[in-house]
Structure formats: C-alpha cells, structure tokens
Fold:
Amino acid sequence: MTVVCAAHLPYPSRAMNPTTNIAVRAARQAASIMMRSFNRIDTLTIAEKQAHDYVSEVDRAAEQAIIETIRRSYPHHAILAEESGSHDGNEYQWIIDPLDGTTNYLHGFPQFSISIAMQHRGQLQSAVVYDPLRDEMFTASRGNGALLNGRRLRVSEQKSLQGALIGTGIPFRDQTYLDAYLAMMKAMVRDTAGIRRPGSAALDLAYGAAGRTDGFWELGLSSWDMAGGILLVREAGGTVTDIRGGDGHLESGNLVAGNLRVHREMLATLKPHVPERMRA
Ligand code: IPD
Ligand code: CA
Ligand code: CA
Structure:
C-alpha cells in the first residue's frame, strides 16, 4: 500500500537539496535518449560485456548525458558510472546507473529506470531513481525524506512476512550462489503472500520506499544498482542491511531492505540458507 501525505510539495521542491535537483535534470536528459530509441530497439548496437550481461548504445549515450550535466554544475566531483567506470575528483562522488534493467529495455519489457546517487565521504546525500515510462521521479535528500513526483513517501506498515509482498532479483550472471538463492526463494515463497522479480533493482528499492512492496532482497548487486534506492528506502523510514544484518551491502552487493519488522523477519528467514563463505 502506498502511503502518501496530504501536502503536495512544489516539484522540484525545497525538500530537495541542490545536488538532487541536478540529478533530476540529468535523469530527465537520459530518459529522453532512452525513450527516443525505445521504439527502434531492434536497430540498436548491442555488446555482451560478459555472459548474460549486455550494453547498448543507449546505456552509453544516457550515461554520457548524465555525466555532462553533473560536470557542468560540479566539475570537481568524482564519478563512478557503470559503463565508463571511475572518474577522479574530490570527496563528493556520484554513483550512476544510466539504464537499470537493460535486459528488460532490450526486450521491450516495460520496466527500467535511471539511478543517480551522490555520496560525501561514504555517506549518501542525494538520490534519484526515475521510471521514464510512468514518469515517476523518486527522489531523496538526506534528512529531508523521500518523494515521488513531489509527494512524500513512507515504507509500508506491513506487520509481518505473513501477507507481505516481497521483491527480489534472480542471479543471472554469477551463479556461484544460485542454489543458496533458490533455497532462500523457497523459504520466502512459503512465508509470504508473493514474490516479484521486476528486473530493475533501483526501481525495486524505490517501490519498497513507496510501500508498493514490503521488502526486497538480492545477491551480487553492484553499487550503482543500489546506491539511489538505499537512500530512498532509508529516507522513507525503512531499513537496509547486508544479508547478515550488517552494513557490508555496498561492498558485497548482498542486500536486504524493508520496513523494520518485515526486514527483521526476512533476515531470520534467509539466515539458514546463507552459506558461511558468502560475503555479508
Ligand atoms: C540489473 C538490474 C537487475 C538486477 C541485476 C542488475 P542492469 O542492472 O538491476 O534487476 O537483478 O543484478 O545488474 O545490468 O540492467 O543495469
Ligand atoms: Ca543496474
Ligand atoms: Ca545498467
């Protein structure tokens, strides 16, 4: 259930810090590149980065547009972007996934997003996750809450896993922990009302922040898949940890998110299936 407060804030609003406003601008530019090509995906140049991992000219062009927009306002900030890697700068770092859900996009499956986050000395300050198909702009500024198109977001009030709707991602590249993941999935299926695998981790987390799902877990994510969504969930009152309840998720990519109660039960349900050798 989405919980939205009555006040409709002006948008972009004062509840956003200046870096969030720049991220919104950058996301819109990337979106227009994406949408221009969405009805001619069969003509796009696509490369396979590694097994089951594709990149198209759209991912690259969108990323370039985002970086140019950020650099115009913040020329000295550092950048970590999925397709072009690390760009040196000061202690402010932008973390960019120009197209989260490339596999969906390249199949014409309508679920993908743009994720842009900014952190200062390791602390997330700003986040934008944008769904161009639904024109849904999820934003968060540290200490100022999370918004969807200017309306305040709150995680769900679901009290337990029983009856909960849980998002996830199924490992499709590195399958080292596929069996462990399937055991986790089986336990979750038994304990919840349903599992969803929409295919854009950034949007999955944004949906958690909006109370559309009650929790989310995935193994082996990259920092650009998660950074924006993590701040959204936290600013919407939710909890994000690694698979053992600690704070190693940005390094390990193994992440569990939800409202406080659902998150606690998810950790307990997943625990028996977390191999000892798996990074937290
Ligand atoms: C992927 C999506 C997907 C998740 C993968 C990610 P990409 O990102 O977020 O939902 O399951 O782990 O890599 O490659 O489409 O940017
Ligand atoms: Ca991604
Ligand atoms: Ca991507």
The first strand starts at residue 3 and ends at 8. Helices lie at 18-37, 57-73, 102-107, 178-191, 201-209, 223-235, 249-252, 260-270.
